[in-house]
Write a structure and sequence with these properties.
The chain has 389 residues and is an alpha+beta fold. Helices cover 16% and strands 40% of the residues.
Length: 389
């Protein structure tokens, strides 16, 4: 039996609100990313959305496409590579969600609308998030070129180049396209095919939880209930169906604890698997009380077995701040480490280190990279980064 194909690369979609990230996902996959009812009402992405898609190659003309029939010669195509797409919110009040999502990215597409001046505020902040997360594989999409003239597109292209200069994305390819009209997608697909697959990291398994939910329908009989589902990505080792895992830190009854559960099922985009390895996103049904997983209650937790990062309530870390920002003793800041985040009070700060007492525990090893955000004009702003000592 042939081995099932599964995504080996997580691609984050970044960019300012309404610049067309979700429309680009639809253009690539012919489906919308997973959405919550609140998102559908408001018409914006407010949490991490995700979906998988496959790139095919024509058996005759060898061109890449996103369907089983070649759009150029109408011959049959064969699947050759799968990706997981993670749609990050573009709204300015949701940067903490973007930062926690960046921990899952192997690569990123930065979407910039050609009919607006570059950079917009969240374009700038999302690029900083990629820089802090050390996401080096970046593709820039100049979207909505169908709404402007050729001369305007060239002027806007220069704005993008100037914006990227001196950043982690300075040499990133810039692909002009229209996601709405599905024009220029072939150039983006060629760039996606050049991305290297996520390297497998050996060791005790570690799973970052980005979503959690109760999959049971209302009115189901108690004996038919299925356990809570966690969604996210394996960043080390592998998880197998039937084995026990630890989740932490889980908030129950006002206390953060570790809980043990069993893996009942592993799925990737509706396909069942016996194990989950690094690369791509996966949903794991557990034996947990489904109410514990409802409405993303477990987001920010980690899962695994064997040696796992310790749970910490206080931290000492280095800090590097972006221009114009500062931190003072007594400030309340938001600290993000991988997929989890917590507010905390700055207990002390000198020229090299910051000491902080956390309001909620984080799971982190010494040497882990963290980001700092501060509440400015009632919104969390990314102000810098550091390393836990």
């Amino acid at each position: 039996m042939a081995e099932k194909m599964h995504p080996k690369i997580n691609i984050g979609l970044m960019g300012h609100v309404d610049h067309g990230k979700t429309t680009l996902v639809e253009a690539l996959t012919d489906k919308w990313v997973s959405k919550y009812s609140e998102e559908k009402k408001r018409g914006i992405t407010i949490r991490l959305g995700y979906t998988d898609f496959t790139i095919y190659q024509c058996q005759k003309c060898k061109k890449y496409c996103t369907s089983k029939k070649c759009m150029a010669c109408f011959s049959d195509c064969s699947p050759i590579k799968m990706f997981s797409l993670i749609d990050a919110p573009g709204h300015e009040s949701l940067i903490p969600i973007v930062l926690s999502g960046a921990a899952l990215f192997d690569a990123a597409i930065l979407v910039i609308a050609a009919n607006e001046v570059c950079p917009q505020p969240q374009t700038k902040e999302h690029l900083r998030a990629l820089q802090v997360g050390e996401v080096k594989n970046i593709i820039v999409v100049q979207n909505k070129v169908d709404l402007i003239t050729r001369e305007e597109a060239e002027k806007h292209h220069k704005q993008i180049k100037d914006f990227l200069k001196g950043t982690i994305a300075e040499n990133a390819p810039i692909i002009p396209l229209s996601a709405q009209q599905k024009v220029g997608l072939d150039f983006l697909i060629s760039e996606l095919m050049s991305l290297e697959e996520h390297p497998a990291i050996e060791g005790d398994p570690l799973f970052l939880i980005a979503r959690s939910f109760d999959a049971n329908k209302p009115g189901i009989e108690p004996e038919e209930l299925s356990g809570g589902v966690i969604g996210g990505s394996v960043i080390r080792g592998k998880l197998k169906k039937g084995e026990k895992i630890i989740l932490k830190p889980v908030l129950i009854g006002g206390k953060y604890i570790e809980i043990e559960t069993k893996i009942k099922e592993i799925r990737r985009d509706e396909e069942a698997y016996e194990e989950a390895t690094s690369g791509g996103l996966v949903a794991i049904q557990t034996s947990l009380d489904p109410s514990l997983a409802k409405s993303d209650k477990l987001v920010g937790c980690i899962a695994g077995n064997g040696k796992m990062p310790p749970t910490i309530q206080e931290l000492v870390a280095t800090y590097t701040l972006f221009e114009k920002y500062e931190i003072k003793s007594g400030d309340t800041i938001l600290i993000t480490c991988r997929n989890s985040r917590s507010t905390g009070s700055v207990g002390g700060i000198d020229k090299k280190q910051i000491k902080c007492k956390l309001n909620a525990p984080l799971c982190a090893d010494k040497g882990s990279k963290i980001s700092y955000s501060k509440l400015i004009d009632h919104k969390w702003r990314l102000i810098g980064w550091g390393v836990i000592e």
